[in-house]
């Protein structure tokens, strides 16, 4: 319904480069852990849940009794002690990496080192007893909930609770409570019809994903989850201050949430895929802050990029232009020499300086240090402004004026 599933497209484009190295020995992809947040007031705790939205039938399976199962992770400001175990970057790391390789048709051991990457969060750490705004993250089509850990950790370290789920069957792979894998698939009926009504069915998909997000918030608002287990994070969340952000289709999902759900006070998209929005939706003023951090092709369709240079991409760009003309207020950062996957952790964890490293053109030519510093800073500043009423120090962005273009729209 969109571009090819996110990680499948990435690895298929990387494969020719990696195959060219095969003659000199086993394929090794040099990876490194993401850098810790530049500002860190709080430690980062995390918890994992398996939730079942019994009110919704599962549209991706044929059994009418199937309901919507979601693998959920929450990060929160915490006190870390020596008994807390550090969490991996990816939930079910070996199975997820293997699933990515299988879907992309790559050797199972290709990214084995990725399973060893650790995050900066610690399991079941004691929550800080204060009130923090809530932010929801929505991954891209074929992505995973931990694909933007750099921004998630930057937010939590400065006083936010962040929640994300794998959008089951729209994630590259997910898992149920028994550990059974739930790989990416398409709804058969939608897929057949999408050839003729692609935009309509993409709209249905982002609406379905938005219902996942809304269920997450509904669960957090309860003192006890639907499973009956107590909710230890309920006391520390300020439900009057909620934001949402996402990458690619997650960006489109985020904007739809800003438009349709009064719970959301602000939304941010990373190289957003707005194709699924109707023209009326894109023309509607949310009267709430929106930010887009993206490749330069969004500013100028003739600039080299990898998102708006197809028939669907042209429609994506059209919807985006309508948002900027209609919404009050909108902030934009166009990052030069960036591409779609520049705005994911893969740009940050791939060690292009390693002696084993090879250039991966799909990650964009921009220095990953600039990506790490600027994107994390802008995401944090935007939500500090829109959810904590903190002013933005615009002069602090002057060091990035060679690498980025900054714009503001107030309609």
Explain what the structure shows.
With 411 residues, the protein is an alpha/beta fold. It has one domain (6-409): Rossmann fold (3-Layer(aba) Sandwich). Helices cover 30% and strands 22% of the residues. It has helices spanning 6-19, 93-104, 149-157, 188-194, 198-220, 249-260, 279-283, 311-326, 345-349, 368-388, and strands at residues 43-57, 67-79, 86-88, 118-123, 126-127, 132-138, 161-165, 173-175, 181-183, 237-247, 266-270, 290-295, 330-335, 404-409. Strands 1, 2, 3, 4, 5, 6, 7, 10, 11, 12, 13 and 14 form a twelve-stranded mixed β-sheet that branches. It is globular and about 50 Å long.
What are the salient characteristics of this protein?
411 residues; alpha/beta; Rossmann fold; two-stranded antiparallel sheet; 22% strand
- Biggest sheet details: 12 strands, mixed
Low-confidence stretches: 10-27
Count the DSSP helices.
Answer: 10
Q: What is the molecular shape?
A: globular
Question: What is the average of the pLDDT values?
Answer: 87
> Which CATH class?
Alpha Beta
CATH topology: Rossmann fold
Cα Rg: 20 Å
**How much of the polypeptide forms β-strand, as a percent range?**
15-25%
The number of domains is 1
């Amino acid at each position: 319904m969109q571009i090819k599933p996110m990680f499948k497209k990435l690895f298929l484009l990387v494969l020719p480069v990696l195959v060219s190295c095969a003659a000199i020995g086993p394929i090794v992809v040099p990876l490194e852990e993401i850098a810790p947040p530049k500002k860190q007031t709080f430690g980062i705790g995390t918890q994992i849940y398996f939730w079942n939205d019994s009110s919704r039938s599962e549209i991706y399976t044929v059994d009418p009794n199937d309901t919507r199962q979601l693998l959920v992770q929450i990060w929160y400001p915490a006190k870390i002690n020596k008994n807390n175990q550090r969490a991996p970057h990816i939930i079910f790391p070996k199975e997820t990496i293997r699933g990515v390789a299988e879907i992309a048709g790559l050797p199972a051991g290709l990214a084995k080192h990725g399973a060893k990457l650790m995050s900066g969060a610690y399991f079941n750490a004691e929550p800080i007893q204060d009130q923090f705004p809530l932010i929801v993250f929505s991954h891209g089509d074929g992505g995973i909930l931990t694909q933007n850990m750099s921004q998630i950790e930057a937010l939590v370290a400065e006083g936010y609770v962040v929640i994300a789920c794998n959008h089951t069957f729209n994630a590259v792979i997910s898992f149920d409570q028994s550990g059974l894998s739930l790989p990416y698939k398409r709804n058969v009926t939608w897929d057949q019809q999408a050839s003729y009504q692609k935009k309509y069915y993409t709209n249905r998909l982002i609406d379905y994903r938005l219902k996942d997000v809304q269920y997450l918030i509904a669960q957090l608002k309860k003192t006890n989850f639907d499973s009956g287990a107590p909710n230890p994070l309920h006391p520390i969340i300020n439900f009057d201050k909620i934001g949402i952000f996402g990458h690619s289709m997650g960006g489109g999902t985020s904007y739809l949430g800003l438009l349709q759900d009064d719970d959301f006070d602000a939304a941010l998209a990373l190289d957003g895929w707005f194709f699924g929005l109707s023209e009326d939706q894109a023309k509607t003023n949310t009267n709430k802050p929106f930010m887009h951090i993206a490749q330069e092709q969004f500013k100028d369709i003739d600039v080299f990029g990898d998102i708006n240079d197809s028939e669907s991409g042209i429609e994506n760009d059209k919807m985006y232009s309508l948002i900027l003309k209609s919404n009050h207020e909108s902030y934009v950062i166009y990052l030069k020499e960036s591409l779609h996957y520049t705005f994911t952790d893969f740009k940050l964890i791939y060690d292009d300086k390693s002696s084993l490293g090879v250039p991966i053109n799909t990650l964009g030519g921009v220095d990953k240090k600039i990506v790490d510093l600027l994107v994390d800073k802008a995401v944090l500043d935007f939500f500090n402004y829109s959810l904590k009423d903190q002013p933005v120090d615009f002069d602090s962005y002057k060091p990035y004026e060679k690498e980025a273009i900054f714009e503001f729209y107030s309609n």
